[in-house]
Amino acid sequence: MQEIKHRVFLVDDQAMIGEAVRRMLADQTDIAFEFCRDANAAADAATAFGPTVILQDLVMAGIDGLDMVRRFRGLPATSQVPVIVLSGKEEAVVKAQLLEAGANDYLVKLPDQIELIARIRVHSDAYRRLLERNEAFAALERSLADLKREREKSERLLLNILPEKIAERLKNGEASIAESFPCVTVLFADLCGFTEFSQQVDARQLVGMLDEIFSTFDHLARAHGVEKIKTIGDAYMAVAGLPVPRDDHAEAVAAMALGMLEAFRGVMRSRGLSMELRIGIHSGPVAAGVIGRHKFSYDLWGDTVNIASRMESHGEPSRIHVSPTTRKLLEGRFRFADRGEITVKGKGTMHTSFLLGRV
Fold this sequence. Notes:
Number of helices: 11
Radius of gyration: 39 Å
Largest sheet: 8 strands, mixed
Structural class: alpha/beta
């Protein structure tokens, strides 16, 4: 059976016209025909039928032909469907008005069968091509929207592992990023008693707790303008003063560290646990850059990183252990308790302090 390519909808209040057009199209197996005598019901009937061409009488009871054309043009289902107006006589002025209102063609009825079928096919084919183009454009728009969503997703993922400025530089084509910073402040934090705790709970509880703790730390980092560098097991590393240098890097990290202690206690209380957090801070020069080709990592290197790590490992539970360099940068704005001289692995004797709070 031949495919129905053309769907013709006729609106005319004369049954004889409807029957005459039906007979003209009867042997055209690729044309489906629908007739409506009630102009007031035509809009709903056309929407239900889904025509590719509308044949419309110019003079019908209860409605002007121009208004009927405008009605079809105002409906989403027929706004672009070609309209051929059938009139009892040729009237140039009326034809011009109809074309201006949105009609596509004008025929004196009853037209010759061959001419009518030819015009139906021409307009119907044009409409089908229009639908195909519209669908192609819609598909393109969907593809572009999908591409945009994927790009945004990739950018969010990139921002989750890299500082925003570094991610922007990579997107702009920089193949290698390596820089030196004369003075930043590095923080290390570690969960005391985590190893013992991890042996007593299942993986879901363990990961859930770490996610809550580190997500809280991430929120504090954003609030204070501190860059999270990475987590290693139950350890958390962050820095202020890069990739965008800032003079108050030590103050930003100190404020974050105080917030971390308080937030950590809150998580422990809510979970009925008794672990403690140990934090170490040191300030100084570092090298920083992106390593990796498929899995990017932004990291820090240098003696400053090592000393900050020692401040954490040589510290005490629930306290913020700071180097003399960091204390000097914070003096006058924060309160401290002297730790005294301690032996720092690989660094010898160092006079350190515990950060207590703001002045």
